[in-house]
Fold:
Amino acid sequence: MKFSIQRQTFLKYLTDVQRAISPKAAIDILHGFKLELFPDALKLTGSNADITIQTIISISDEKANLQIFEEGSVVLSANIFSEIIKKLPADELEVSVDSRLQTTITSGKAEFTILGQDADMYPHLPELSAQSSLVLSSDILKKVIDQTSIAISNQESRPLLTGIHLLITDQKLLAVATDTHRLSQRTIHLGEAAGDAHYDLVIPGKSLKELAKMLNDDHSEVEIQIADNQVLFILGHTSFYSRLLEGNYPDTKRLIPQTSETTATFNAQSLLQAIERSSLVSHAGRNNVVKFTLDVENQEVIITGNSPEVGTVEESISFSELTGKNLEISFNPDYMRDALRSLGNTETTLEFTMPLRPFILVPTEAENDFIQLITPVRTA
Structure:
């Protein structure tokens, strides 16, 4: 096996594939890249228990400048191989593998020799017999992942809550994540392009976060293929496989309040800055709690952070509208901070029912399309 390639382009492909490689993989060979060289392309594969990423570098890719001298395959340690490629001195590099899997990497005056493994020992990719497929804009998919992944659970005792629930029906995509303390729900109207597609699946949050890092200007669209226990995202010449989580995701519709007793509208960025200031004190306390006091009669909103070890912060917050009943409510400021960051620089309405009932944040220009829910904290 022997080929030469442009170093920076090769490194970019390696970085994408390495997202699927875990140092904790139970199978030793999964610590490595699988390289397969064909007459017209180089195929790179990385995998762990949850995801597999495979990309194809074609000889027609001018940026790669791939030159193929001898076909073959090998598995190389991901950490060692990628670090070598990063530090090579020249723009071009050459990789040569002999019959004993001794692999020589040459660039400029530098030459490395490392031992490879037999590619035939590498696990085969799952045969994905797609039952259906859907094409989405990559920027929409990335936004959905970024906005909902903040609420996924880290508790492996409830594996379904470590994923994002995707429901596609009636030409709409509904994405939901919750850790039982907060919830993030995003709705995208797909239009006629979705046809009569109907999917109901839960994808591990860790998988989707890695996918989001790969969604950039190089890929305008993503094709999604779904089978019984696998989902495949196709981004140009790169394929991203993920297992699906088994089971029925909890019914989260009943968690979202349908009415409100008090509403307040803020600029999301201004409110975020006030939350971050209050957190300077609340983070020093054992409970990390801040309090909102919404005084409708006097048209005032006060945020208070308190820590017996440090002190107290109190601030009057600007708002554009405040209606309903007076209310005091306490919550985790980190949850509010994450929700506001996901909303961006927009006008945001907070809708409250009672001091110990969940409240929601919705951008005023996209009501019901994007909802963040936070469960308050009992302080007395």
Notes: The chain has six helices and 26 strands.
